[in-house]
Structures are given as C-alpha cells and as structure tokens.
Amino acid sequence: MIGRLGGQLRILPGTVIGWDMAAALALGDALGIPPLAMAELLPVIEAVMVTKLNEQMDQANG
Predict the structure, then answer these.
(1) N- to C-terminal Cα distance for the chain?
(2) Which DSSP symbol is given to 60?
(3) Separation of alpha carbons 41 and 48, rounded Å
(4) Could you read off the pLDDT of 3-57 as tens digits, one per residue?
C-alpha cells in the first residue's frame, strides 16, 4: 500500500507535508486493510517518509 501512495503527496513549495490521508484510507479500504491497522501505522510511516523526503530535497538543493 505504501508504495502506491507516491502520487498522493501533499506538498508546499519546497517541502513535503504528508500524504492525502483521505486517499490513503480509501486505498487501504479498497485493498482490504483493516481500518485500525491503517490508523495505527499510517501516521508513523508518514512521519518517517516526510522526514526522509525533505532531507533528500535539502541535500539535492545544496
């Protein structure tokens, strides 16, 4: 599921702020992932993803 959320990023100029959670929850539902699992795991994974993507963008921009 996480690999499928790449197109659902919420972005401000120069920074990633997270996923579109409505889209993430809809995708998880369509894939049959229990809502409790999504509620527990998505915010934690999102936080790591945001940190890493922003670090990569900072390094690329010097």
Answers:
(1) 32
(2) H
(3) 11
(4) 888 889 999 998 999 999 999 999 999 999 999 999 999 999 999 999 999 999 9
Whole-angstrom distance, CA of residue 22 vs CA of residue 13: 21
Q: Which long-range contacts (CB under 8 A, 24 or more apart) does 27-35 make?
A: 27/1, 28/1, 31/1, 33/1
For the chain, the structural domain boundaries read 2-60
pTM above 0.90, yes or no: no
Write the DSSP assignment of 3-54 as a string of letters: GGGGGGEEEETTEEEEE-HHHHHHHHHHTT--HHHHHHHHHHHHHHHHHHHH
Measure the CA–CA gap between 43 and 8, rounded to whole angstroms: 14
Q: Are strands 9-12 and 15-19 parallel, antiparallel or unpaired?
A: antiparallel
